[in-house]
Amino acid sequence: MINKLEIQGYKSIRQLDLELKPINVLIGSNGVGKSNFISFFKLLNIIYEQRLENYSKTEGADNLLHFGRRQTEFIEAHVEFNETNAYSFKLQPTNDNKLFISEESTGFNKSKGGNPAWYGHGWAWNGINSNSDESFIRNSTVGISSYVNLYLKSFKIYHFHDTSSDAPLRSASQLNDNSYLKENGSNLPSFLYYLQEVYPANFKKIERIVKSIAPFFERFDLKPDRLNSSRITLEWIEKNHPENYFNASHFSDGTIRFIALATLLLQPELPKTIIIDEPELGLHPVAINKLAGLIKKASAQSQIIISTQSVNLVNNFDAEDIITVDRGNSQSEFKRLENESLQNWLQDYSMGDLWIKNVIGARP
Fold this sequence. Notes:
This protein is an alpha+beta fold. It contains eleven helices and 17 strands. The protein has a single domain, classed as Rossmann fold. It has helices at 34-48, 52-59, 61-64, 144-152, 188-198, 200-213, 253-266, 285-298, 311-314, 343-346, 351-356, and strands at 2-10, 13-19, 23-27, 75-81, 85-93, 99-109, 123-129, 157-158, 173-174, 217-220, 231-232, 235-238, 241-247, 273-277, 303-308, 322-328, 331-336. β14, α8 (285-298) and β15 (303-308) form a beta-alpha-beta unit. It is globular and about 65 Å long.
């Protein structure tokens, strides 16, 4: 789990020092920086996957640095995992508007665990890279770097927003493309089929919760394509109409998104960190409440980071799960709420009420 995150000089985030918990729900008005916070994890994944040079060439360093190269000289970040290991990097711009890694390090907290001979105070840092176009962390598989590696490779931002007729979420997929659920849900049929065959208990849980928000849905009907056994389509059976053919194109936008979310959160081997941008999009209020329950359950095994505009979703969480995002002093400002400071308000109002009434901020 990420227990602490420090960011400097990234997009609207001039300076951030934030403790993270098992559940982290970001709320705020449009344009305050929620998406920039979420996109930081995309940057982390890009660095890990050694795609920084191409990404920064496409995006441009001026669009990634806080108010561009004229105002900000570098992007720097420090990520702590379970108070024991850490990863840090510093990115600097080139003359041709790209970014390179000027410093890259892993760290070990000497006061936490490990060999008693290492015990001490503060962090011990090991520089693994400097002045390079791409990261070295992916290739560092011994010592502290091996632990950091496990976390960084799991950072994926899930977007199930595209539900158009030709969206990846509604498309057939390769049968064996089932190692993990992809960020856009493009392998949803093959991943569900994998769960059906290998983890039937989890598969049944997914079917049951889909039925609870879509009463017309009876069950999935998953099997390899009859004419091409290497492909599979998301087929299903409608209640009281077993003779009719239905596939992903027949689901409403909200239902197909909910299926993808339920599959993500009910899979047996959860990613260490699950990051979702506006998961409530297109969902009925009942489905949003079900989603909140899935998030809480998954947080026992995985750290959840989401951004939302949904008052209904916020109502399902405690104050300490909520991070408000506002814009002030020409930067994004993040604040984790505290139950104690809101105790008197919460006797009469829900968290969503306090948000609407502008008691907790995160409003225009």
